Amino acid sequence: MSTSERQGLRVTGVSKAYGGLQVLKDVTLRAPAGSITAVIGPNGAGKSTLANVISGFVTQDAGQVFVNGAELPAGKAVARAGHRLGRTFQNLEVFTGMTVLHNVAMGAYSRQKGSHLGDLIRGPRTRRNEREAEESARALLRKFGLEHRADSLVESLPFGEAKLVEMVRVLAMEPEVVVLDEPAAGLPPASAMPLAETIAGMAQEGIGVLLIEHNMKLVMSISEHVVVLDQGRVLTEGSPAEVQKDPRVIEAYLGPGHAKSEELTL
């Protein structure tokens, strides 16, 4: 599919409740191809639940999720790879006990076609797929300056590099939409700029990026559109500058009584 044909991510009317607690209520948003859409909001706003619904780890009560116009089956995370949707998590999710190269190769391998029987007996197609996945992984490691870490166990890496490996593994899937759930969580401020460049590079390659993040400096520096969740609902949305000065957003984060002239700088 060419870049011009990509529609990116579309979420329409998504709601989710746990018992009597309404976590998401009629959430609608878009993350168009080739752009970065950020989702922000105070703790408990429903951001992580939204990420889990989009990526199929949680089944919504109502609403739909679309990638490039195709509706994704609710609550089926495994089907997302076939629709070229990638996801990172708040907590570091890497395959410990495996090298950096093999971590990234797992992303490339997930998009290849094979058979369960072929995988079990390691037939010619399986061996060819493994070689191609490793070649693709090495190329990505070179691109992101991680080639020297290829043979290192991933758990031996500094936290910032391990987070980058997780993102590179997602890119190895050749996704058309990615959901980044607080990628800057736990990173020192000095690591934010390389992370921002990586995320911006995703959009430049035509990927639709949905960025869920608490780091306001990161959000405001690279996002083209910002959606604000509060108590499970879309409070407002707009450009970073518009959202940063919106008194409703300031009140949601900081509480009532703050001057309307303040800007959100958390």
Automatic annotation (TrEMBL):
Keyword annotations for this protein? ATP-binding, Nucleotide-binding, Transport
> Which terms does the record give in the GO molecular function aspect?
ATP binding
- Domain of life assignment: Bacteria
* Domain (ABC transporter) ranges: 9-256
Q: Does the keyword ATP-binding apply?
A: yes
Question: Does the record's keyword annotation contain Nucleotide-binding?
Answer: yes
* Pfam families for this protein: ABC_tran (PF00005), BCA_ABC_TP_C (PF12399)
How is this protein named in the record?
A: ABC transporter ATP-binding protein
Species the sequence originates in: Nonomuraea ferruginea
Lineage of the organism: Bacteria, Bacillati, Actinomycetota, Actinomycetes, Streptosporangiales
